[in-house]
């Protein structure tokens, strides 16, 4: 059992604006499923890589951004507000909503349907105007609250001896193969 904590309250520091209005994965009591209009999955990945999203921070945070322009990539931490509260009760899911993938515990996936739907995405920083950051590669939907931003540098993530399950290797390989077909 864990120690009891005071109620944790997060305060958004900004909001995400883009053209993506609905989440790509639908979570309900039956698990996850990919939105039908997004098959095949790779099309969604390509669109996300090309789409420019604006991360608009609160105006009083301008000083917090000093030096951010020197990074090519940043981590955007945001709240998946499109996940209904009842969908946060899932314990096991098929990754990417694909029943061909094994049924695994939620914490073994990057599913947005989490007890606390806090998500993180590494994005390319393509521009900045005041407290507005233009990024590509952000898989958030329009209106998602931003919780934090951190610089990304490859040395902060292990590259050697990283182990992932076979099913995740297959997902990543398929995404990579489809990406190189363009």
TrEMBL record:
Q: Where is the TsaA-like domain?
A: 10-161
Entry-linked CDD domains: UPF0066
Q: Kindly give the PROSITE patterns that the UniProt entry links to this protein.
A: TSAA_2
Which residue spans adopt a coiled-coil conformation according to this UniProt entry? Answer: none
Cross-referenced Gene3D superfamilies? YaeB-like
Q: Name one GO biological process term.
A: methylation
One annotated GO molecular function: methyltransferase activity
UniProt keywords (A-Z) are: Methyltransferase, S-adenosyl-L-methionine, Transferase
Q: Which Pfam families match?
A: TrmO_N (PF01980)
Q: Which domain of life is it from?
A: Archaea
Q: Which family does the entry's similarity section mention?
A: Belongs to the tRNA methyltransferase O family.
* The protein's name: tRNA-Thr(GGU) m(6)t(6)A37 methyltransferase TsaA
